[in-house]
Amino acid sequence: MKYLLLFIVVIVALMLHKKNRSSQQVSQERPKAQGLSAPEPMHACTRCGVNVPASRCVWDAQQRPYCCAEHARQG
Ligand SMILES: [Zn+2]
């Protein structure tokens, strides 16, 4: 009878542990989804054609997008 009680306590403890772990996983995933930045337009580099996010483009005097300063200088 003593062992049956111990067995039940162990099972309940394991169930609570499992439940806590699964709820932690859910709460860890949510900030990731919220942390995603909004989509931004892509521009193809005028020199090599690589697509670059608008915020990381290098623009020349004619407002043409480049992937880097090196390609902007080469034209
Ligand atoms: Zn380029």
Structural class: alpha+beta
Helix content: 40-55%
What's the order of the H and E elements? HEEEEH
Ends distance: 85 Å
Residue share in β-strands: 5-15%
Low-confidence stretches: none
Summarize the structure in short.
By secondary structure, this protein is of the alpha+beta class. The protein is built from two helices and four strands; from the N terminus they run H-E-E-E-E-H. It has two domains: 1-36; 37-75.
Commentary on this structure:
This protein is α+β, with helices and mostly antiparallel strands. It has 2 domains: 1-36; 37-75. Helices cover 53% and strands 13% of the residues. It has 2 helices and 4 strands. The strands form 2 sheets. It has a two-stranded antiparallel sheet. Strands 3-4 form a two-stranded antiparallel ribbon. A hairpin with a 6-residue loop joins strand 1 (42-44) and strand 2. The longest helix has 34 residues, at 2-35. It is rod-shaped and about 85 Å long. The N and C termini lie far apart (85 Å). The model has no long low-confidence stretch (mean pLDDT 83). The structure holds zinc ion. The site of zinc ion (ZN) has 7 residues, from loops.
